[in-house]
Amino acid sequence: MAFKRAFVVFFLFSMFYTFIMCETEDMDKEKTKIGKDVLDYTESDMYRLAEQWDENDEEFDPEDYDDNDPRKPPPKQEGGFDPSQFKDDPMAMLKLSKKGKTVMIFVQVVVKFDKKEADELTQRWHNSLFNAQYQIQRLHILPN
């Protein structure tokens, strides 16, 4: 009787051990597929990978985006842009025509500075505009 019991326990243990080893081999195979070197991919691997990306790719849904998105340009006026309505105020015309777009501005200084003083002055302007949430780049065109 003890022999039968020991045999059954040994048999169950060996079955359990075999099952566990098969599972770990499958996991190892999956891990090697993930860690495969890109240079070792074949054409069929690349094709399968592209299909997986297409399956997981979500379709563009315009409802997901907010109408009040600040990056979205404002709608165009029906009558178009009329510069004649801004005869006295060129800054208002600039604000309206370039709203939401990148503007290039050049600054000319009347007083002649040496290179170090000009660099300090433009650095102050740069810091002030940066603190006001403007993205700017400063470039010195002329040495004087």
From TrEMBL:
It comes from Paramuricea clavata (Red gorgonian). One of its GO terms (biological process) is Wnt signaling pathway. Residues 1-22 form the signal peptide. Belongs to the MESD family. Residues 52-67 have a biased composition (Acidic residues). It holds the Pfam family Mesd. Keywords: Chaperone, Endoplasmic reticulum, Signal, Wnt signaling pathway. Residues 52-88 are annotated as: Disordered. This is Uncharacterized protein. It is found in: Endoplasmic reticulum. Coiled coil: none annotated. GO terms for cellular component: endoplasmic reticulum.
